[in-house]
Design a protein that fits this description.
Largest sheet: 8 strands, parallel
Oligomer: single chain
Bound molecules: alpha-D-glucopyranose
Shape: globular
Strand content: 15-25%
Structural class: alpha/beta
Helix content: 25-40%
Strand order of the largest sheet: 11-10-9-3-2-1-13-12
Length: 540
């Protein structure tokens, strides 16, 4: 059984990590060039976003063949080499399994479209009602989630883009096909799987939703547990680490999916904490984040998940989210300090931390200024939707600049002059250039070296790995703070989320400072400086 509390996952968005052949698109050989950099950071597992053949409508989340490598990323030999070379440096590989839907270019879907009823049963083909789609549900990328196929006089379901057709997991053959894919990659030495939007796989009732956009009919459906248990029993085991991406779920459900007794998943990603800058639940708004909501969510999830025996994936960044430093920190006045403070949050909580490419060098948002710079299908759709809703060009661009997924997808900044590709990158560089990886490596006080120290600390601290979480200073409007307590050790973590000083009313006489994001220590002071983070240990 792997000890999840000792794992630290690094997420690579292959398209933007390192281009080895000058075509402007990152690739597997590019990743190979940086394995030493990753190993010296101290991470134990590398999660790669999809690298399978795909029309790239949704950057690889529209898979047309699950057991091959898209030539734009390299070859199967490159992948095998990557697995071996990572393993030699003590890192495992985790692949992304997009099993809620396939690309409409997948051979199963092509056969279904050509009239093969066997394959039509792999998907949800349904008759419309009175000239309307089967239900009024909306796609997560905007518009109806049903696409009409005139030749069949039927609609098919796509919860995401219309080129991402949902698979019907009720069909046992579909489940068998998916297990074969897992076995294939295990045979190659892959040791982890990330399951894309996995709590959407059980669609029980196709009814119009008069209260919302359909989510409640397909989120955390009745069969999700049973399907996950079957996948695990037939195609996985204790040596494999799995993480499920959960859309709009609850603590109870996540704890259930990840409680080891239930034999479903190792851990789960949830997103409530990344919705604290939505206005009335609407992502596409230009709003500051609500700190108290964020802190209450951290506290609630950590305490309740532990009580229910579950395990969380800890993250503030991924390929679908704006950069945390621009979002919850200050990328103009306190870039390094706030990036380090946020690193302390991710790396000292209960769960398995995930670091997203570039986070460890303090990469900010893209700060794009024109729609021509965006590539993401969701952002491009919402550009039109927001304008249709009456927003001006300037307002629309300002909302996209805050919320677009492309914020996380700009090329990794390896050196002062970029260093991602010898050619024209598929997406522009972030407009705000902060220290590159090279500059980070040279500076002992850099964000990179702070991540390294946090990782070392985590690896040697039983309380950070396994301790109980006890929230403190719960009403403080500026500081997020907690104790991590286990029989042999007690840790206190204090994080000031603002650019102003924060007084702290705590007796820390018995504690000594382990790590702080300010070079000049002031461990006894009852005042946290702007974005200051302190990690202390109770003296024995
Ligand atoms: C997940 C992925 C996202 C993708 C979507 C549809 O949320 O992380 O990038 O667009 O699923 O597959």
């Amino acid at each position: 059984m792997t000890d999840l509390s000792r794992e630290i996952v690094y997420q690579i968005y292959p398209k933007s990590f390192q281009d080895s052949d000058g075509d402007g698109i990152g690739d597997l050989k590019g990743i190979l060039e940086h394995l030493d950099y990753l190993a010296s950071l101290g991470v134990t597992m590398l999660w790669l976003n999809p690298v399978y053949p795909s029309p790239q409508r949704d950057n690889g989340y529209d898979v047309s063949d699950y057991c091959a490598i898209d030539p734009m990323f390299g070859t199967m030999e490159d992948m095998e080499k990557l697995i071996q070379e990572a393993d030699r440096r003590g890192m495992k590989i985790m692949l992304d399994m997009v099993f809620n839907h396939t690309s409409t270019e997948h051979e199963w879907f092509k056969k279904a479209l050509a009239g093969d009823e066997h394959y039509q049963k792999y998907y949800f083909f349904r008759k419309g009602k009175d000239g309307l789609p089967p239900t009024n549900w909306e796609s997560k990328f905007g518009g109806s989630c049903w696409k009409y196929v005139p030749e069949l006089d039927q609609y098919y379901l796509h919860l995401f883009d219309e080129t991402q057709a949902d698979l019907d997991w009720q069909n046992e053959e579909v489940r068998e096909e998916l297990k074969k894919i897992l076995r294939f990659w295990r045979g190659k030495g892959v040791r982890g799987f990330r399951f894309d939007v996995i709590n959407l796989i059980s669609k029980d009732a196709f009814e119009d939703d008069f209260e919302g956009v359909g989510k409640r009919f397909y989120t955390d459906g009745e069969q999700v547990d049973a399907y996950l248990q079957e996948l695990r029993a037939d195609a996985l085991d204790d040596t494999i680490i799995t993480v499920g991406e959960m859309s709009a779920t609850s603590i109870e459900n996540c704890a259930g999916y990840t409680n080891p007794d239930r034999k479903e998943l190792s851990m789960a990603f949830s997103f409530h904490h990344l919705k604290v800058d939505y206005e009335n639940g609407d992502k596409w708004t230009d709003t500051d984040f609500d700190f108290m909501a964020l802190k209450n969510l951290f506290n609630d999830w950590d305490v309740k998940t532990e009580a229910l025996g579950g395990w969380n994936a800890l993250f503030l960044n991924c390929h679908d989210q704006p950069r945390s430093m621009s979002r919850f920190g200050d990328d103009v006045n306190y870039p390094d300090t706030s990036a380090k403070m946020l690193a302390g949050v991710t790396l000292t909580r209960r769960g398995t931390p995930y670091i997203y490419m570039g986070e460890e060098i303090g990469m900010p948002n893209a700060h794009f200024e024109s729609i021509d710079e965006y590539r993401d299908v969701e952002s491009l759709n919402y550009y039109d939707i927001l304008k249709e809703k009456g927003h001006s060009e300037a307002e629309t661009l300002s909302i996209l600049a805050r919320k677009s997924r492309d914020n996380a997808r700009t090329p990794m900044r390896w050196s002062k002059d970029g260093g991602f590709s010898g050619g024209d990158a598929w997406i522009p560089d972030a407009r705000r250039a902060l220290p590159s990886a090279e500059e980070n490596l040279q500076d002992p006080d850099s964000v990179y070296h702070y991540y390294q120290k946090l990782i070392e600390l985590r690896k040697e601290s039983p309380a950070i790995q396994q301790g109980t979480t006890v929230p403190i200073l719960e009403d403080d409007p500026q500081v997020y703070a907690y104790r991590r307590v286990c029989p042999d050790e007690e840790i206190v973590c204090l994080h000031n989320f603002f650019g102003e000083e924060a007084p702290i009313d705590l007796d820390l006489d018995d504690y000594s400072l382990l790590l702080s994001n300010y070079p000049q220590k002031n461990e006894t002071s009852g005042l946290l400086r702007p974005y200051e983070s302190r990690i202390l240990r109770k003296s024995a």
